[in-house]
Amino acid sequence: MARSETPVPPPRHDPPIARSSSPPWIPPAKPLPVGRIAAVTAAIVVVMGTLVAVHAIHPANFPANTGSVVPIVAAENFWGSLVAQLGGSHVSVLSIVSDPNADPHEYESNTSDAIAVSDARLVIENGAGYDNWCSQLVSASSSPGQRVLNVADLLGKPAGSNPHFWYGQSYVNTTIAAMYSELIAIDPIDQAYFQLQYAALNTSLAPVWSDEAYLHAHWGGGKAQIASTESIFEYMANSSGLDLVSPVAFMSAVSEGNDPPTQSVTEFQDQLESGNVSVLVYNKQTVTHLTDQMQAIAAQYNVPSVGVTETIEPSGETFEFWMASELSALTSALDQKVPVS
User: Fold this and answer.
1) Is there a smaller number of Cβ atoms within 10 Å at the N or the C end of the chain?
2) pLDDT digit string, tens, across residues 241-250
3) Range(s) for CATH 3.40.50.1980 in the chain?
4) pTM, to two decimals
């Protein structure tokens, strides 16, 4: 069974190792629908052309920071929220993907994104094929002295892995520790300030990890079966010790925007109709006819549904508020179906 993890203490800091000047490795992108290939190709050409002009206007020869505000770009707002809290008044964070009503897998970058990435001292990207557009902008900008934190690379996750790392407690803690190290490398003068911010962020996240421990204690170890239309819930299920029973082929296909194998659809439906599933989790940002159909079946068989999102909802809230809200909804649904004795 999974165990709740304690926050990672601030890492030691020997003199920072210089980052390789070679472009970061770019994992292969998820195949695009044929109808969008021409549009995406044209967009990339525009962005690349813009970057040439950007360097003429915004030179990126970054000097050592002397306590000024560090410009940071996060490809998605879940990582942006965490690094903004960690950096406090010494950082300025732009989170590019932040609309909870849109599918992040379909995001296409623009010239404003290109300029922001070019000017950033630190770029945080999720990786594992989730935001290849960001890797392409980083590679095209080639800003000297810029640091890039690729979460998938940090965690040792190759392209094709389940990319929803922000739903895993240990992955979040590891990423925050890496963010802390990056800030110290960029702005060593403010190390003491970042240490205080690091402690405050861990304190703020503690109730979220406690909520997961509560789920583990009351419904973990097979006490409740959870179905999920996508792999987005896999890491949270692992952190909470919950039994995720949905066919992997079904979850992976829906996550990637593909049609699941017929056998996996039948198996998923049978699970909902069996009476053994306690809760259905679905992704509110990637609703399809098939996922609507599964929600309807769940309702017919008195299985409560809980919606989750890929980006922070509401978009102006913090990472921990968002996670706590989703865990609260999940706890209420489980208590409705499998009351705590």
Assistant:
1) C
2) 999 999 999 9
3) 34-204, 220-310
4) 0.81
